[in-house]
Amino acid sequence: MTRSLVASFTARAAAQPGAPALIWEDRPVSYGDLYAMAVRARTQVEEAAPDADRPVGLLVRKSPEAVALVLGCLMAGRSFLLPSHELPEAPLKVLFQQTGCAVVLGLADAPPVDRVVDPAGAMGCEEYPPATAVDDEAVTFMLTTSGSTGLPKVVPLSSGAVGRFTEWAADTFGIATGVAVLNYAPLNFDLCMLDVWTTLAYGGTVVLVDPDRGASAGYLRDLVADHAVSVVQGVPMLFQLLAEATAESGPLDKPEHVIFAGDSMPARVLAGVSTTFSKARWYNNYGCTETNNSFLHEVDQDRPLRTPLPIGRPLAGVRWLIIGQDGRALTGPGQGELLVNTPFQSAGYVNAPNAKTFAPHPDGAPGLVYYRTGDVVTLHEDGALSVIGRTDYLVKVRGFQVSTQSVEQILLDHPAVAEAAVIALPDPVAGHRLHARLRLTDAGSVNSLSLRLHCSERTVRAAIPSVIEMVTDPLPRTSTGKVDRNRIKACVLAAEEERARMPRP
């Protein structure tokens, strides 16, 4: 039986009660204090939701109290749904109902299920009972997908899956007593499995980024420098901000590991990373909420960088296949959809069909359930794997199959482009036409003609956007921080319809 996350945390709290578990607003929260907060939260959970068979809903912003509430649920042996608190009320209510939550603990204005309890109360527990034991298959965390194609899917993770992941992450990145790890992502992100929950399970210190200051380059740099952060994991935006801050104040020499996660790293951001971290090893980390990490690539900084970065080699215990257009597994170099099976993966969605997404494959290992990632990858001659884009974003333009995400990557590789979204619009002749919306690093620093030339040198003519629109405001994001292409597409279509209704001169 795998040692659970909460059992590991409890052992660390007993062994080092005075050691810092969290840094929040530049003040430390010790392991002893966090443990006491978690025990009080456990009492709150058990009193608010006496039916141990029903999950608990959590609706919280990042804070020490929110971390303690998650630990309190784990101590009580309860499964819990942890969605983004920024989701609108209607989908939140549906998610809590679909997962059977009897109570929502968190913000006072959370949508009602049976009732809502504010975590500010019931903080007077003095006894520290042992955590409720659960077996490896018992569901603990329930996270959600981004919801970019509709209602987010609920992804349940078992105690064993979480325990196996934290063991792998701690061993791979040297997370142990005295090691500080930056937490940039919101608590509902799967990235927190590494930078929050692995760190607490293995005695390190989580340096929590205040979400309200997450776009401040100077604040982020000071957090990393002042608290001797050793492990930095994040999306490209984090590394871009750190590069901006260190350009003036000098490189950061304490980090030992920097881990790229989420979106593909643009070439200009990688160039900034090379001057930001003077001693760190770089990793490109591939995974998703449904499987957690599955591939890892350590970047050789002595060789020329190529983008997109390869996703690397499978982790120990990971099985994978690439399925071509004929539905069979590739046996050599080629392109297709990536299927994976990991020691950390979910058994399937709570609120969506699973038959096509989680299933055995005739070319796979007998008895294994593979997750269809939806990512189109290329297996190169040298054995390297690169992600091209999502199957959701493959479209036909004048007979050519084009990945809009691949076009986005090409645009992001231009040093003048800070953000990019490429959407496919219906076209009666071409099938689709591509519309790019960009935000530049400096307004007016480049024009659409030079950007088209940049694209023409890197892709086929059909993949060059027919419209390149430049905006000054940041592109809209989903609740999980990804560019919200659906909102952009709706905005572009509405503008086109409005122009079509205007009388011609």
UniProtKB/TrEMBL annotation:
Residues annotated as signal peptide: none
UniProt domain AMP-binding enzyme C-terminal: residue ranges: 407-482
SUPFAM superfamilies: Acetyl-CoA synthetase-like
InterPro entries with a match to the protein in the record: AMP-bd_C (IPR025110), AMP-bd_C_sf (IPR045851), AMP-binding_CS (IPR020845), AMP-dep_synth/lig_dom (IPR000873), ANL_N_sf (IPR042099)
Source superkingdom: Bacteria
Domain AMP-dependent synthetase/ligase: 9-349
Name by which UniProt lists this protein: Fatty acid--CoA ligase
Organism: Streptomyces globisporus
Lineage: Bacteria, Bacillati, Actinomycetota, Actinomycetes, Kitasatosporales
